[in-house]
Every structure is written in C-alpha cells, then in structure tokens.
Amino acid sequence: MSTSNVINLAGQIEKRLPADTFSFIKTAGEVAQRQQQRLYLVGGMVRDLLLERSTLDLDLVVEGDGINLAQKLAAINHAKVTTHPRFGTAKLQWDNGSTDVATARAETYARPGALPTVKPGTIKTDLSRRDFTVNAIAIELNPGHFGELIDPYAGKDDLERKSIRVLHTKSFIDDATRIWRAVRYEQRLDFRIEPSTLKLLKRDIAMLATISGDRIRHELELVLKEAIPEKALNRADKLGVLAELHPSLKADAWLSSVFSRVRLRFSGSPPLPLYLALLAYHLTSDEIGQLIAYLRLPKSYSRVLEDTTAIKGKAEELSVHGLAPSRIYALLHGYGSTALTANSLALDSTIAAEHIELYRNVLRNVQNALSGDDLKGLGIPEGPRVKEMLQRLREAKLDGRVSSRKDEETMVREWGGKSKG
What we know:
Layout: H1 10-16, H2 19-34, E1 38-42, H3 44-51, E2 59-63, H4 66-77, E3 80-84, E4 89-94, E5 97-103, E6 105-108, E7 117-120, H5 123-128, E8 138-140, E9 149-150, H6 155-161, E10 163-164, H7 171-174, H8 177-189, E11 192-193, H9 195-203, H10 213-224, H11 229-239, H12 253-265, H13 272-279, H14 285-295, H15 299-312, H16 315-318, H17 325-332, H18 337-346, H19 350-361, H20 372-377, H21 384-398, H22 405-420
Parallel strand pairs: 2-5, 10-11
Antiparallel strand pairs: 1-2, 1-8, 3-4, 4-5, 6-7, 8-9
C-alpha cells in the first residue's frame, strides 16, 4: 500500500475508546515493538469504530508469539492470563476489562464443516480466514504506524455500502456457521447480504448438515442474545435457514409479538431459555425431543422446553373460569419458572395466563402452618397418611377453607376421628 493511500484512525480511536482501553492498546503496541513484532486491533471493534457504534470486543493479533506477548502485557497490566498453546492464543482479564491476544495464523479446512487446521501466518493471511469483508479489517498499533488501517478486502467500502460480503466462493462450504452469522450481522447492523453472497448462501444451506449440533446451538444462542433476535430469526425463516434447525420451526408475526412481550416484562437481557422455549413453542413433544437431541441442549435448557410443552398440554383446563386455586396448584406444581412465564406469554387464553400468574406469584408460595412432625404429635401415625394429610391441608389453605394453625389442627382432628371410627 502506498503511503498516500494510508488511512489513519488514531484520532478517532482515541476519541471513541475509553481512556483506559486506549492507554492499554497503545502500551501493547509499544511492547510488541520492543519484541520486534507487529500488533493489530482486529474484529468487531474495528468494524464498530468505523461505524461509530459503541463497542466492547477487544481482540488483538500479533505477527509473532501471541502467548509470549500476552504474558508480558499481563505483567504490566496486573492481569490474569489464560493460554491456549495449541492455537497460539491467550486471554487477559483484569478488573474492568479483558482482551484476546492471538498469533496471526493461516487456516485450511480438511473437509466441509471441519474445524480448521491452523499454522502461523501474517496479518493478511489472518484476515483472509475471516467470515466477511466487514470483519476482515485491522488497525496497526505499533508506534510510528499507530492507527493505520489494514483493509485488503475493501471491508471499509462494504461498511459504507451497508453490505455483507464473503471473502471467497467456498466460504459457506468451509464453514456453514457463517450462514447464521451473515443473517445475524445483516439484521443487527441493518445491512443487506450482497447479491453474490446471498446466491452462495442459498446454494450452500444444505452444508449446515456438516456442522455439529453444539456449534449450531452456539450460533443460535448468539442470535437469541441480539437486542431484537426475531429480526434475524424472521430472515432465517424466509431464507430456509431456520428450517435446517427443525422443519416445524417458524418465525412469524406471532413470534415477533411474543418476543416483544418478553422484553416488556424483563429489563436488560431476557433469559435466553425463555426465548428458546417460545421459538419452539408450537412444536410437538416428539419434535421438542428431536430439537433437544440435535442441539445437544444442556439439561437446564431441555427441562425448560419439556416443561413448557407439558404446561401447554394443560391449556384447556387452565382456561376454565373459576378454577379452584387448589386445582391450579395441582396443574402447575413442579414446573420451572421460565416454562411458566413462557406459557403465560404465549397462551391465547387470558384466563389461563391469569391462572399461571396467580400460581407464580401467590399459590406456589403457600405453606401449611402444620408440619409432618406436628401431624404425628396430633396422633397421625407415621407413613403415607402424613403426606396425604399435608397435601389435603395445603388444598384447604389454597381454597380458603383454613386460615390459621388452629383451623388446621381442628381439621386434622376431624380427619383423624373419621379415620378411627
């Protein structure tokens, strides 16, 4: 690149980054210089700086030894360092921040969907392995070149065109998770997947079958962590990408509406399993099982989906007007809070939703005044009858037939007398 074409963003970097972050990357460049290595800022932070968006990701790539540099930076910054020698990467963590430091590398793919084979490389080979041109931009941090833009694939131009473009025609074949990322970036940034990339994406949708369920789950989780995840899900549905998760999944007006209601209920980030349960809400019990197996969902997520489906199966009875509190309790007891919330948001019946909320907020917290030991003290023999009477007492309390310890004692004596005579 001739010096006349060099774009330098030093002033913009200093203006937009927090002072401590700016100081850190400047120091990092100086340390790399002393080690006779070249250090670069890469990834989302570069993209977001150029877009003048707020940014948190701090990723560094060094032409040299990433782990060695990370250890030197950790000593200077009093940071904890975690190394991954196999990949030549390290993570630094300190009180108010973190960064990844990676050795510049080149990648090859033994087969579609396989994890890449890596070897040391240059900043250009490192950028060439990126997913899209807008993420294949770097900024040098060494003194004398601090702030200089490295943009071999014209990613800055694509940012200005609001365009998502792959670097080569085999991109989605090498790693089909990029299909999900293309949709996610397009919708987050309000860009468009450019025509030739869109054509490749549609051609290679079937390559998603080469990706493990764990990796697909990771991409889906990233979608669900977006500020408005239904945008990416709607786009994925229209492109036929969502159906690769499960043919029965739909992202439609109903899903957009219920996701909006989720955000009204929760400040900050809604629970990710709640979004997932609502995405899968219209699947059958068997289809839920298939989705759980394919995505290899952890037990906590699996239970939310299974509980949500089980509660949905009780919608008809939950919709009965004037249902006794004890019956509401019996229908909903034992199910997790997230599954309850999912159904209260998703069920068409206002009555059912009110019953679920009554259980969530009031009924599940109702406790008997008497314990099992109290019942034994009142002459109830140890065994299954104690459990049965505790349950009957709870029902009586839920339905307002007892309201005090004395009421419960009177009721137990009446039941005990009947059982004896």
